[in-house]
């Protein structure tokens, strides 16, 4: 009788373990992986230094919960460096599946701006006041349904030109962040390379052209976003909705390039423009 009682206890423990494992497995399957990627639409500033002290998300089931980025807080970034395809992964982790309603970035008061001075080579550093973002956080509406086991990448396109405002003649600058959010799974990209003849005649033939501005327009010729080519002449523009676009490339020393035909962008794909050579004015 004692033998059967021991067998029963063993079977009971085994069943509890199996049920527990099944519940853990089901619980793990109720999570989705979320990545937040920060990029920048260009601005007329040498540096735009931002300090992020918290990144939070809100689902339909829970209140605000903080992400835990690998690099930890605070996250310090110069937005002016996020051009030519450069980006910064803010966070990449699993969160409970369901409706991801909002994400918010909370900034410290340690934000600065570096601009060109009045004389050649001179620079001016200015403090950036961030009244709304540092009080309650910059809220970004997503309303995206996260399916269990799936991976989602959201692109945060920070428009510096629209975000930095000068307060009259006071010499003060205010940061009112303007960020465009796109899910990479339902958006596409355009990439290419810009070259041009070396105006100094130090190199025979075309060379990579840095700081060429690439503007993307929709079919109604409305400006959607911009970026700059990097030191290798490369550029990439992410977070574009599927559709057709026009591209122009501008540099002070060369003739503006305009795409003759519409450029088709498909969700989840990169549309290559190849190498584009800007021409020297005659």
What is the fold's blueprint, element by element?
Blueprint lengths: L1 H27 L2 E11 L5 E13 L4 E3 L8 E4 L9 E9 L1 E10 L4 E5 L6 E7 L1 H6 L1 E9 L4 E9 H4 E3 L6 E3 L3 E5 L3 E11 L8 E3 L4 E5 L5 E6 L5 E8 L1 E8 L6 E2 L4 E3 L4 E9 L4
Parallel strand pairs: 1-10, 8-12, 14-22
Antiparallel strand pairs: 1-5, 2-3, 2-4, 2-6, 2-7, 6-9, 7-8, 10-13, 11-12, 14-15, 14-18, 16-17, 16-19, 19-20, 19-21
Characterize the structure shown.
- The chain is mainly beta.
- It has two domains: 31-177; 187-278, Immunoglobulin-like (Sandwich), CATH 2.60.40.10.
- It has helices spanning 2-28, 131-136, 160-163; strands spanning 31-41, 47-59, 64-66, 75-78, 88-96, 98-107, 112-116, 123-129, 138-146, 151-159, 164-166, 173-175, 179-183, 187-197, 206-208, 213-217, 223-228, 234-241, 243-250, 257-258, 263-265, 270-278.
- The strands form four sheets. Strands 2, 3, 4, 6, 7, 8, 9, 11 and 12 form a nine-stranded mixed beta sheet that branches. Strands 16, 17, 19, 20 and 21 form a five-stranded antiparallel beta sheet that branches.
- A hairpin with an 8-residue loop joins strand 14 (187-197) and strand 15 (206-208).
- The termini are far apart.
- Residues 1-28 have low confidence and may be disordered.
């Amino acid at each position: 009788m004692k033998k059967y009682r021991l067998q029963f206890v063993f079977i009971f423990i085994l069943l509890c373990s199996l049920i527990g494992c099944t519940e853990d497995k089901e619980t793990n399957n109720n999570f989705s992986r979320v990545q937040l990627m920060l990029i920048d639409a260009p601005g007329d500033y040498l540096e735009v230094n931002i300090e992020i002290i918290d990144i939070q998300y809100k689902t339909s089931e829970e209140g605000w919960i903080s992400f835990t980025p690998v690099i930890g807080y605070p996250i310090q970034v110069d937005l002016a460096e996020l051009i030519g395809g450069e980006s910064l992964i803010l966070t990449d982790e699993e969160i409970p599946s369901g409706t991801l309603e909002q994400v918010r970035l909370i900034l410290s008061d340690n934000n600065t701006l570096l601009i060109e001075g009045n004389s050649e080579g001179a620079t001016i550093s200015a403090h950036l006041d961030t009244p709304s973002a540092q009080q309650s956080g910059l809220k970004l509406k997503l309303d995206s349904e996260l399916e269990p086991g799936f991976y989602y990448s959201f692109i945060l396109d920070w428009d510096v030109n629209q975000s930095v405002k000068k307060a009259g003649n006071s010499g003060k600058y205010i940061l009112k962040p303007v960020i465009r959010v796109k899910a990479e799974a339902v958006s596409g990209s355009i990439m290419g390379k810009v070259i041009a003849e070396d105006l100094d005649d130090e190199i025979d033939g075309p060379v990579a052209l840095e700081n060429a501005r690439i503007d993307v327009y929709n079919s109604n010729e409305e400006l959607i976003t911009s970026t700059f080519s990097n030191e290798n002449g490369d550029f990439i523009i992410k977070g574009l909705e599927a559709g057709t676009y026009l591209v122009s490339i501008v540099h002070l020393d060369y003739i503006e390039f305009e795409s003759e035909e519409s450029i088709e962008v498909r969700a989840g794909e990169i549309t290559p423009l190849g190498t584009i050579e800007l021409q020297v004015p005659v």
